[in-house]
Design goal:
Shape: elongated
Strand content: 35-45%
Oligomer: single chain
Structural class: alpha+beta
Largest sheet: 5 strands, antiparallel
Radius of gyration: 66 Å
Helix content: 10-25%
Number of helices: 11
């Protein structure tokens, strides 16, 4: 029984102690000068409601007072009265809840060591006249600060464009309300930000930082300039355009406010032609001749002038020296590095230019001088991503500028913004030529490594071919005849590729070569036939001549002129006394189909005929012979009778062509020569006469024009 009681008694005591509040610990007190005395402790918050009582004992006055607080208001309490520095306070904190009271340990606080004052208020930060690298800071003492005490100060400062703070410590006695401090060791013509805090002597609590204030140091005389130029190709009045560029020398701070620039320049071999220019423009343009020039530039302000910067402009025909053998670029984590190789050890200064490579007008050129090294670096954030930059390096030996070496670089590559525009040319049966244009520079976003041509037949499988970036056309082969295809081209960079618009085409059903082949075969056959014909004509010329040009009777050799008198009458009556009575049409003379012998006899040698007629009829007039007309056409007897064209000599009674022959005989002869055969009208005769192709242009069908002069000549002969 007693053992069980002894065992449960510690547990009951434990549960009883667990209901008491937590003992206050980590007590800290601060004396806010002339404002309050505040103490804090832990824990800061309690789960149950607890009331706190802070008991203060003033050692020098031997007085006690309390300050009450609750857990809801936090674990702190302030005394606003009976603040008697210097003194020592004894502090003890009591925590009480429904289950009891618990007290903290007793602590002792010397007011001199826990005094905290307000921060000072800076009134001005100004440069000191005549002192270039110093500013004077003025401030007002804190209102709630010991007047007879010494204060320790910390001054922090930084340049406006910097994030690094620097600090200066100093001590000031609280004699004057306004204090001042000269901050030295600064850069000239630089703006600074300053802040101030203080602490009472022997105290361990610093005031807060004052409000920041800015000021600028005095400027200095200008430093030297780095000078460069751009040689333009434009000319005005025969003079070349040179644009000057300058900036602060590398490594020198901007410590002055430049009021302007003085420029003077002259030909290398004639200083008497010096020209001057005063400007505020940092990129002025000069118009120089073709010879070598020297250019000098200085900057100035109210305090003085900068050292002189000199630049030599080479003559237009001067040959520049070369010494850079190779160049390459590489990217680090945050920098672009350009390195080059040169065998000229005497060259130790270089000028680096970089400018974006765009389709539009070039932007402003950036440049920088490099010495004692063969590489150049630039932060990547100073260059734009997806932009191509042209970087050129010029070697400089004393005052001479050499031939530049250039390279292109991207600080970051991306997928092209657009693909190539495709075109189809030379469409054949199984081949086609695909051409495309380069992507505009501002849309490439990187170096184009290759092009890929995708082509696909209608409802067929897609194929592709890849070529390098220097090729802008490709011939597709082994295509299907008379088939529709779709083709597109993709441009690829290191980051990826972009497809251009697709285009469709259809292969031909027959090629130009096939057309040429068929034409060649047909033409060749015709040529062979012609050659065989020529060979045959050479071998047998008479037969070929007879086939192409048949013989036509010569009317000049006709014997009809000898047919006169009874002989002519007998010849005309041959058909009349023919024994074949049953064949009546044999007695009819067909004018358009006479045999060759009869044609020869009927065709007249007109001059002989006229001579005969003139001899036998000297008394006859030419009017009777020629039908009473001065000029009349006489048609060959072989010519068919056509009523519409009357060309035959009309018969007039006794004016017969055959003298001495009776009129009846002539009439009978005419009847036999031109009988009114049934079915043979004038039109029929003309048609039959026109069917003889060999006599169309023969002399037998020619019309003879009997002129008036010929008649007079014959009459004189008679």
């Amino acid at each position: 029984m007693w053992a069980w009681i002894l065992w449960t008694l510690p547990l009951l005591c434990k549960f009883g102690l667990a209901d008491l509040p937590t003992k206050p610990e980590n007590i800290s007190c601060v004396f806010y000068y002339r404002k309050n005395f505040t103490c804090t402790w832990s824990p800061e918050k309690e789960a149950n409601f607890i009331s706190y009582t802070v008991r203060r004992t003033l050692c020098y006055l031997h007085e006690n007072d309390t300050c009450n607080s609750t857990s809801e208001n936090g674990s702190s309490c302030s005394f606003y009265s009976r603040l008697t520095p210097p003194d020592i306070y004894i502090i003890q904190v009591e925590a009480q809840n429904a289950y009891g009271i618990i007290k903290s340990d007793i602590t002792y606080w010397d007011l001199n060591t826990i005094t905290k004052i307000e921060p000072p208020k800076i009134s001005s930060v100004k440069p000191v006249l005549g002192l270039e690298k110093m500013v004077q800071i003025k401030w007002t003492q804190p209102v709630l600060a010991p007047k007879s005490s010494t204060l320790n100060y910390t001054l922090r400062f930084r340049a406006v464009n910097s994030t690094h703070w620097m600090e200066v410590n100093f001590t000031k006695s609280c004699v004057n309300e306004e204090e001042a401090y000269n901050l030295t060791g600064l850069q000239a013509f630089t703006e600074y930000v300053v802040a101030l805090q203080c602490v009472a002597h022997k105290s361990r609590f610093w005031s807060g930082w004052s409000q920041e204030k800015m000021g600028i140091t005095m400027e200095e005389a200008p430093y030297g300039l780095d000078l460069w130029r751009i040689l333009r190709s434009d000319k005005v009045d025969g003079k070349r355009l040179v644009q000057l560029l300058w900036k602060k020398a590398k490594g020198t701070p901007v410590l002055e406010k430049v009021l302007g620039y003085n420029i003077w320049y002259f030909p290398e071999n004639n200083t008497n032609l010096t020209e001057t220019l005063n400007t505020t423009n940092q990129q002025p343009e000069l118009y120089l001749g073709n010879q070598t020039y020297w250019v000098h530039v200085i900057s100035y302000n109210s305090l003085g002038k900068s050292p002189e910067a000199t630049l030599r402009i080479p003559a237009i025909d001067e040959k520049l020296f070369q010494c850079i053998e190779a160049m390459h670029t590489c990217l680090t984590q945050d920098q672009l590095v350009v390195e080059w190789q040169s065998s000229a050890l005497e060259v130790d200064t270089w000028m680096v230019e970089w400018v974006p490579d765009l389709d539009s007008k070039p932007l402003a050129i950036s440049w920088e001088s490099v010495s004692h090294t063969r590489n150049w670096t630039i932060q990547q954030d100073e260059l734009k991503p997806f932009w191509c930059y042209n970087i050129s390096v010029y070697p400089m030996l004393q005052n001479r500028v050499g031939e530049p070496f250039s390279i292109q670089a991207y600080v970051k590559e991306g997928v092209p913004s657009a693909g190539p525009v495709t075109k189809v040319e030379n469409i054949g049966v199984r081949t086609v030529t695909i051409t495309w244009k380069e992507i505009p520079k501002h849309q490439r976003n990187g170096f184009i490594n290759n092009y890929t041509i995708f082509y696909q037949a209608e409802d067929g499988k897609e194929f592709s071919q890849t070529v390098n970036s220097s090729i802008l056309q490709y011939d597709l082969e082994s295509l299907t005849r008379k088939t529709s295809y779709t083709v597109r081209v993709m441009a690829s960079t290191r980051a990826g590729g972009a497809n251009g618009p697709g285009i469709s085409f259809k292969t031909l059903s027959i090629s130009v070569f096939e057309i040429f082949l068929v034409t060649s075969l047909v033409g060749g056959g015709l040529l062979i036939l012609i050659l065989l014909t020529v060979a045959y004509g050479i071998k047998k010329p008479n037969k070929l001549k007879h086939l192409c040009w048949p013989d036509v009777p010569n009317p000049a050799e006709s014997s009809i002129a000898t047919w006169c008198g009874d002989d002519f009458k007998g010849k005309l009556n041959l058909k009349k006394f023919d024994n074949s009575v049953n064949r009546e049409e044999d007695r009819i003379l067909k004018p358009c189909s006479s045999p060759n012998g009869l044609i020869d006899k009927l065709v007249v040698n007109f001059e002989n005929f006229l001579e005969v007629v003139s001899a036998e009829h000297p008394g006859k007039g030419w009017e009777n012979i020629l039908g009473g007309e001065k000029n009349e056409y006489v048609t060959s007897p072989n010519r068919p009778y056509c009523p519409t064209v009357s060309t035959e000599i009309p018969p007039r009674g006794s004016q017969c062509l055959c003298p001495g022959v009776l009129e009846e005989t002539c009439s009978e002869a005419r009847g036999q020569l031109l009988p009114p055969a049934q079915g043979f009208g004038p039109d029929h005769l003309c048609e039959e006469g026109a069917s003889n192709p060999y006599l169309k242009n023969s002399v037998t069908t020619r019309e003879f024009l009997v002129s008036e002069k010929l008649a007079e000549q014959i009459q004189r002969e008679v």
